[in-house]
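User: Could you write out the 3D structure of this protein bound to zinc ion? I've included everything you need below.
Assistant: Certainly. Input first, then the structure.
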Amino acid sequence: MRTANHGVDVVIRGGRVVTDSTEGAFDIGIADGVIAAIGEPGSVVADEVIDASGCVVIPGGIDPHTHIQWPLANGGTAQDTFESATRRAAAWGTTTLVDFVPGAPGSLLAAADRRLGQAEGAVIDYSLHPVVTELNESTIAEIPALIERGLASFKVYTTYGSRLESADIRRFIRVAGEAGGLPGFHAEHHALLEDALAATRKLRGTRIGDFPASRPGHTEAASIREITGYAEEFGSPVYIYHASGLDALRQIEEARAAGTDVRAETCAHYLVYDDSVYAGADGWKYVITPPIRPEADREGMWRAVADGRLDAVASDHCAYSVADKAAGFEDFTAMEPGAPGIASRMPLLWDRGVRSGRLSLRQFVDINSTRPAAALGLTAKGRIAIGADADIVVWDPDGEWTWDAASDSTSNGTDYDIYDGLSGRGRPRVTLSRGRRVGGSGATPPRGSGRFVPQRIQ
Ligand SMILES: [Zn+2]
């Protein structure tokens, strides 16, 4: 342990601290937004003291997959902005997120500049995954420049109109991997999805209850098999977005066993719910791709979270309104897939993970902070260590909450919520982003106080 009494602006005192190497009662000193001291209780002195008694002190949460202010297929935009969404994230303990540069025809660098402009309102730090929807000479030429600027983790769709086909998927992995980037994928095999949808239409129909049958787990596994095969061929790391269940997980593990660097996230909704949600009258809320899987998958994903086989739990947040989803109430093929979840992610992971006994405190910090930072090259984030950014949450493990779409403080910021009515415990007393109070009582971070964080993939 190091101690320092000079130049420390703030000390966090009295909590149980999870540092990158140990767990215990420590003072944490912050200077100029960085962790400057970790010492025995009473050893660090500063004018401002944050009382953490009764709390755990953990690194801020990292949400690696959000769609803020997202352009919708119906021509509208999701019901939030970088400012409103990041205020909500910070209020519930998330201090860094990685959103996307939406795919658009033309220059990837110009699209990135437009998106960086939109993101300026954020109150927490952020990075962006560029979405690549066309591969040609000019987009290929821009990929190294994006990586150089720190927009180094990408997303390619393997289905939907914006997908790349196999030859371009393979080429993209080669190009992005050779340039030091992290090629990432929405992995659902398009031809197999079309086949499964045709069979579902014929045998069942396209009402909400039929939705999971239209996107079975083998479609995810086949896509991951293809992607990881190319990754192995070129020695490139790859990132798999929103792995939903055991079919995906087995394929990821098989590729890792063959020596491929496969990084993967799951999402909160795959850990909280099983596919019985589609039988309910509000089943439309859960039309998300890939679909929410059966109970055995949910339990299997929790085990993978606990033992370090997954790198992050994302929200895949998109703040649709009920009106945005309504076209698909009677026919899931007409629905915009996705759901809001930027605020609920961390309290749910705590309550269903730590409080339920599935995760230790260390395992929670690993999946919520340390592993996502490492997977996505956020080198100053995700751990309590000297020199790391002071992105810290003083977390009250007993603080109660009940999620309520009608409330401003316990919702994800739109007019419906897939977690409406759930209750649990665990919430921030104070959230700090680079030492500034961004969440907890009385925090009013100024618009735009968050910063773009360049990624350095390792
Ligand atoms: Zn997404």
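The longest helix spans residues 217-234.
User: Perfect, thank you.
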